[in-house]
Amino acid sequence: MPKSGKDPNKPKGKRNPYSLFLQQEREAMKKIEADAIELNAEDENPSNFLEFSKACAEKWKALGEEEKQPYKEAAEKDKIRYQNEMANYTPPEVRGSKTRRGKKPKDKNRPKGAKNPFMCFSESRRPQLKDANPEAPTKEIAKMLGELWRNMSDQEKEPYVKLALRDKERYDEEMTAFIKGDYVVPAASMPTDMVEAEE
Fold first, then answer.
1. Which of 66, 128, 173, 193 has the most Cβ atoms closer than 10 angstroms to its Cβ?
2. Which residues belong to any copy of the HMG box domain (predicted)?
3. How many other CB atoms are found less than 10 A from the CB of residue 136?
């Protein structure tokens, strides 16, 4: 099993109608972008993923029930596929004869781990994406965040790198106090003056 602890054999989660619609729109957008690159369209601007997701949400809202029906039917089929696959799925712990060693319970008073730049970015942008795509499931929002992050330049990522460094300092200080026995659990682990990165 991979280091992440996820079983690669576990069935993919079921998708709702909006997820299927969004996937179709994303694939269409990728084809348009690929065609633009092939034609060397220099005036073609790179797609703004946040704007794209907002446009998809508006497009979905504007669809009539009849137009949404194919996605609803596909989602129902995917639900059945998922249920069938899960019925035949055996988790790794049960599959093997050896039982996993019980993990040591987490100390609730231990300092909260330091956030990496992507985590800081996700905290900042997740509310915007949720507002723009109210029907998108959490998994879909996470995919959008990952795609946004991958398309950002180092300069655009810099504010989040700085936030992560600040949080690392916070974590190091709290861990030192924790080891000494002087640590007091704060109301919030992350600095309250976290600012949004410039658009």
1. 128
2. 11-90, 111-179
3. 23
